[in-house]
Amino acid sequence: MPFHNQQILPAPRKTKDLEKLMTSDFSYLVLLETHISQLKSIFELANAHGKKILLHADLIGGLKNDEYAAEYLCQMIRPAGLISTRGAVISTAKKNGLIAIQRLFLLDTQALEKSYVLLERTKPDYIEVLPGVMPHIIREVFERTGIPIFAGGLIRTVADVENATAAGATAVTTSRSELWTHFASTSK
Hints:
Blueprint: E1 8-10, H1 15-21, E2 28-31, E3 34-35, H2 39-48, E4 52-56, E5 60-61, H3 67-77, E6 81-84, H4 87-95, E7 99-105, H5 109-122, E8 126-130, H6 135-145, E9 149-152, H7 158-166, E10 169-174, H8 177-186
Parallel strand pairs: 1-10, 2-4, 3-5, 4-6, 6-7, 7-8, 8-9, 9-10
Helix pairs in contact: 3-4, 4-5
Protein name: Glycerol uptake operon antiterminator regulatory protein
Keywords: Glycerol metabolism, RNA-binding, Transcription, Transcription regulation
GO biological process, one term: positive regulation of DNA-templated transcription
């Protein structure tokens, strides 16, 4: 089942792409890299267009990625959710009633096993698995944790999206605008 009826979670890297998405059919967007000074205006724009933003807390320039920064984001910016590799940020998001998305970089078996320990402690609402082009790992992580999965990283084609969702990913995060266009047009 898609995440709030979205198979794709657009993750724009450029301001002009973010602005274009404001008039799209996507309800949820992922905000990756930004600067703390831009947050207020970005969220005002998103709110004016009825968009919900999943904010990557680790990639905000000028803001440390710790529980204090997460508390600031939860209280002052109020995104729909926070994405982070850090357990303290995930715990803070959950405590504040935001969607908590634990991002995992699965480079090898050791990283995967350490991630399972982290997930047991943080119990996020969602897990973002990177790279997202590993269907068998997506399936394994979901089966082992029971936590819904987002697939991200190195997603380049429609087939990559389809393989990730066939393996059990709830949604796919991608910065590729051609995939946003394809999946926006197929969801109507």
